[in-house]
Design a protein that fits this description.
mainly alpha, 9 helices, globular
Length: 180
């Protein structure tokens, strides 16, 4: 988000840049293993990150000007139409399969997407998009901690340091600036 924000002439304070670098270090510790390699999935994740960055910047641009819930509804209508068209070309949908999976489909659509993205739009209103992207990047950290607490997975020192770096980055970005 801060890199794309440069092209939109967004001013980003040095403290926020330091927080972004610290978050990158934290994500590196959380996600990159000793057997580092780049595969097709990694490229897709990178492209997805670019699209989400654009999404955060679009929300930053439009959320102060429109009602967040209406914006969310329009977003879901457009996304649903585009996804429906793509589905017809990329898959062979069967009504019986959709009816069998209605509960997970409804949960994903209503809770994961509907509620989650609506709250993102409402919550991001008036917030610096770079700070919003830092907060949203905590998903990796929360996933690791939830796996450790709820599923009894092991948390390596490296992953623990990654979590600490991520939380420190969020705090650094939120610290008030000194008055001169």
């Amino acid at each position: 988000v801060p890199v794309l924000g440069i092209f939109l002439h967004k001013k980003i304070k040095w403290k926020v840049w330091m927080a972004v670098l610290l978050a990158l270090v934290g994500l590196y510790f959380l996600c990159i293993t000793e057997s580092f390699s780049i595969g097709k999935g990694d490229i897709l994740v990178f492209l997805c990150a670019l699209v989400f960055s654009v999404h955060i910047l679009v929300i930053d641009h439009f959320s102060p000007k429109v009602d967040g819930v209406k914006m969310s509804c329009i977003q879901f209508l457009v996304c649903g139409l585009l996804s429906g068209i793509a589905m017809l070309f990329a898959e062979q949908p069967q009504l019986s399969a959709v009816l069998l999976a209605w509960k997970p489909i409804a949960y994903a659509g209503i809770m994961s997407c509907g509620v989650g993205y609506t709250l993102q739009i409402v919550g991001q209103k008036g917030m610096d998009p770079t700070i919003a992207s830092l907060i949203l990047s905590l998903e990796s950290c929360i996933s690791v901690l939830a796996g450790w607490l709820l599923l009894g997975q092991t948390l390596s020192i490296r992953e623990g340091l990654g979590c600490v770096a991520m939380f420190a980055a969020i705090i650094l970005a939120q610290l008030p600036a000194k008055e001169s």
